[in-house]
Amino acid sequence: MRITFFRYVIRKALENILENRLVHLIGIGTMAIAFLIFYAFILIFVNLNYWMEEQGKSLTMSIYFKVEPDPDMIEDVKKELSHFPGTTIKRFISKDDALKRLKSQLGDKAELLDVLKENPLPASLEIVFSGDKKEDFLPYKLKARLESFDMVDEVQYSQDWIKKVQIIMRGIKIVGLIFGGLLFFAALFIITNTIKLTVYSRKKEIEILKLVGATNGFVKAPFLIEGSIQGFFGGATALIVLFLVYILATTGADLRVGFASLDIIFISPQYIISLLLLSIVIGFIGSAVTLGRFLVYE
After folding, report:
1. I want to staple 110 with a disulfide (CB 3.0 to 4.6 A). Which of 103, 150, 187, 273 is the partner?
2. Domain presence at residue 62
3. Contact assessment for residue 96 and residue 135, using Cβ atoms and an 8 Å cutoff
4. Is the separation of the CB atoms in 135 and 86 below 8 Å?
5. What are the DSSP calls for 100-166, one per residue?
6. Is residue 61 in a domain?
7. What is the pLDDT of residue 233?
8. Please, is 107 exposed, middle or buried when counting C-beta atoms within 10 Å of its C-beta (0-12, 13-18, 19+)?
9. Residue 291 sits in the same domain as residue 179
């Protein structure tokens, strides 16, 4: 009996969709737009988290010198570093090497640097911290010690930048919750009104079913399936469009913050499945709300 009822519900829902193609296409398209905005925000949020994690895996410190250091100056810095376990010198970058790197990063625009009369970039020494020393006070103690050297102009620690970004991320999370909630209710409103059109267009059919003794559950079931299908296709369409935009935006793109190159990733398969399930739930709830109101009035 249950299998027969389930078959009837599925068949009836598909027949209704085919008979009211235009209404359903409008609903799916409108839902896709709402989902697309929401998914785009999630994509941005996912990438911000990814960049934070990548930066946190390799904490570094850059020591900038006032003048081109001679071997004795570099040796003094190395001796100081020997007192701080967990630190490793990654490389020394001379003023000339720094200028070459900048020209390479600028690409076709490197000729803009030809107008410079002298090299304004400082020489630097890059330091990497081992994993067991990232969370304690050692880097900050080393930073304060190195800044006291007369030959050192500035010391930059990557964790300082990460902490600033974390503060911004907290604000984005709050905005995201509010924005996501608004989009959730917007999608509910859209599908509620879309289902309302199909319900009222088949008002007589529903009245006949009620007259012959059909229960509310029997009447509601096909519409609930229709709403779920609309939600699924609306969400899937939004994801496809977002992926195409992602491909176009990232092909040949070189996103940088300062001189750090940032990779852009797409939403993970786990996220995609969750978003599709959410779109189905929104479609189901929207249908249930509309039918509940209609049957109460009837």
Report:
1. 103
2. no
3. no
4. no
5. HHHHHHHGGGGGGGGG-SS--PPPEEEEEE-GGGSSSSHHHHHHHHHHTSTTEEEEEEHHHHHHHHH
6. no
7. 92
8. exposed
9. yes
Burial 157-174 (b: 16+ CB within 10 A, else e): bbbeeeeeeeeebeebee
Question: How far apart are alpha carbons 76 and 139 in whole angstroms?
Answer: 18
Token couple for 109:
């625009």
Same domain, 129 and 265: no
CA distance 33 to 263: 26
For 203-227, give one letter per residue: b (16+ CB within 10 A) or e.
Answer: eeebeeeeeeeeeeeebbbbbbbbb
- Max CA pair span of the chain: 99
* Look-up of token digits 């529903």: 206
94 shares its domain with 234 = no
What range defines the domain where residue 288 resides?
2-55+163-297
Query: Which amino acid is residue 162, in one-letter code?
Result: I
Pairing verdict, β 124-129 and 255-257: unpaired
- Pairing label, strands 87-93, 60-65: unpaired
Please list the ranges in the chain whose pLDDT falls under 50.
133-135, 258-259
Taking only the tens place, the pLDDT of each residue in 150-185 is: 777 777 776 666 666 667 777 777 777 787 778 777
| Three-state SS at 64 | strand
Q: List own/partner pairs for 162-169 with CB under 8 A and 24 or more apart.
A: 162/52, 162/55, 162/56, 162/59, 165/48, 165/51, 165/52, 166/52, 169/48, 169/49, 169/52
Predicted confidence (pLDDT) per residue in 72-109, tens digit: 787 877 887 777 777 777 788 877 777 777 777 777 77
Which amino acid is present at 226?
E
Rounded to 5 degrees, φ, ψ at 130 are -70, 160
Phi, psi of 256 (to 5 degrees): -135, 150
Phi (first) and psi of residue 51, to 5 degrees: -65, -40
